[in-house]
């Protein structure tokens, strides 16, 4: 089966659909920053803790360049929303792998 992967929001959310099927697409992953997830700035300590946990779990992160007041030309990490859900609900443990996190 051949799939087409699309992202209408430049990588934040990724969808896939079967080749030549324009009627049904499946959400694969949504990546968000800690600010987007929490609704406020996380701070450097929490940011470092989340980054460390993502690294231990083998979660691939991306960055987004910010260009607004107070954050001119700075990069922030983006994480799969499913990873952040597990992290902040306390369900992330040493046995959690990146492959398990992609199911959200």
Verbal overview:
The protein has about 100 residues and is α+β, with helices and mostly antiparallel strands. It is built from four helices and five strands, in the order E-E-E-H-H-E-E-H-H. It is globular, with a radius of gyration of 15 Å. It starts with a strand and ends with a helix.
Task: Name a few traits of the molecule.
single chain; 104 residues; alpha+beta; 4 helices; 30% helix; globular; disordered C terminus
Helix and strand topology:
Layout: E1 3-6, E2 13-18, E3 26-32, H1 34-38, H2 44-57, E4 62-66, E5 74-80, H3 81-88, H4 98-101
Provide a short characterization of the protein structure.
The protein has 104 residues and is α+β, with helices and mostly antiparallel strands. The protein has helices at 34-38, 44-57, 81-88, 98-101; strands spanning 3-6, 13-18, 26-32, 62-66, 74-80.
The helix count comes to 4
Order of helices and strands: EEEHHEEHH
Kindly estimate the percentage of residues that lie in beta strands according to DSSP. 25-35%
Gyration radius from CA atoms, angstroms:
15 Å
Q: Order of strands in the sheet with the most strands?
A: 1-2-3-5-4
Distance between the termini: 22 Å
Low-confidence stretches: 94-104
Shape estimate: globular
Mean pLDDT: 79
Proportion of helical residues: 25-40%
**Largest sheet report:** 5 strands, antiparallel
Number of beta-strand segments: 5
Please identify the structural class as seen in this structure.
alpha+beta
